[in-house]
Amino acid sequence: MKFQIKAVRDSFNVVSVVLDAADEADAERQAKSSGLAVLSLKRAASWQFDVFTRRARFPLALFAQELLALLEAGLTLVETIEGLAEKEGAGPTRNTLEHLMTQLQQGRTLSQAMQDLPEVFPSLFVATVRATERTGDLPDALKRYIAYQAQLETVRKKIVSASIYPLLLIAVGSLVLLFLLGYVVPKFSHVYADIHGDLPLLSRLLLEAGKFLEANGMIAGAVFLVICFAVVRLLMLPQTRRWIGARLWAMPSLGSRMRLYQLARFYRTLGMLVRGGTPMVTALDMSAGLLSPALRVHLGLAAQAIREGRSISEAMTANNLTTPVALRMLRVGERSGRMDEMMERIASFYDEEISRWVDWFTRLFEPLLMVFIGVVIGVIVVLMYLPVFELAGSIQ
Fold it and tell me: pTM, whole model, 2 decimals?
């Protein structure tokens, strides 16, 4: 959900920002991690027609790639931002780049300039930039962030591509059912008009439904569109998404895979931050937003245990934030001092496990879905032709 925050930056500058967060505590945590002193916090109006009014997002991944290319070409940071702003037309992206350029010309660092726009630059990206400002290796940090985003996008694309074919099957099956009920069944109802009393019960019900759709097609279509819009709008509400998420988490097989997916993103983010020089406890706090509320509570307990002197592997294991394989990798990282590398390997291991499960699930689900759609269509066809079969039998 979205929260409207009024806060003070740099002890004198009052700003107003809108953040996406799970709850008020998460919104306040994000604001503080961006260097804001919160004055007031309230939920933004949620009933908005976001489908039609969604603003264009700042192309952060493209910005990082272009920034890296120009810096490696030998341009200074100010020249780079100025060049990127000049190539953009009038709009939010140009305004953002001009803000960065103005702040840099006033002597502020890039991370400080980005902190003014938390709705554009996530705290993870800002922390990555801030960690390099003392050492001057901003290009290396940008390379790490680009690689991090590419790995996340690879996993996301695998999940999306696996869901496209089942969705197409559902859509095509629904269109076929609508065609049968709205066009074919009414035609059969006219043919059977004279023998209506002798039709089987299920056939009569089907034909009556077809005649109703034929007589009230416009009204039925309007009601169908309203229901679809209401369902889409309902699914966009944070409360609905949380409720669905809780139900999915309660399913043993699916819930465990959702947990692995979140832990993969969490460990990959943590490894990138640690490699960039961010302290472990700070990196844990910054990565908390990637986890569900339930896992976030466990992460808070793990961070507290690490502050108290316990090892990372012990704290993560005690709070159910590892698997047996991940635990062994964490212990190897603690002994070798390569914790960032081990965390990225843990994320890659989780990604591979998720990919195997997605492949298995789609291979099982797609045939079952095709069988289900075929059975539904077959039942409708049989009910339409059942009177013909009975008539043929009586003639014999």
Answer: 0.62
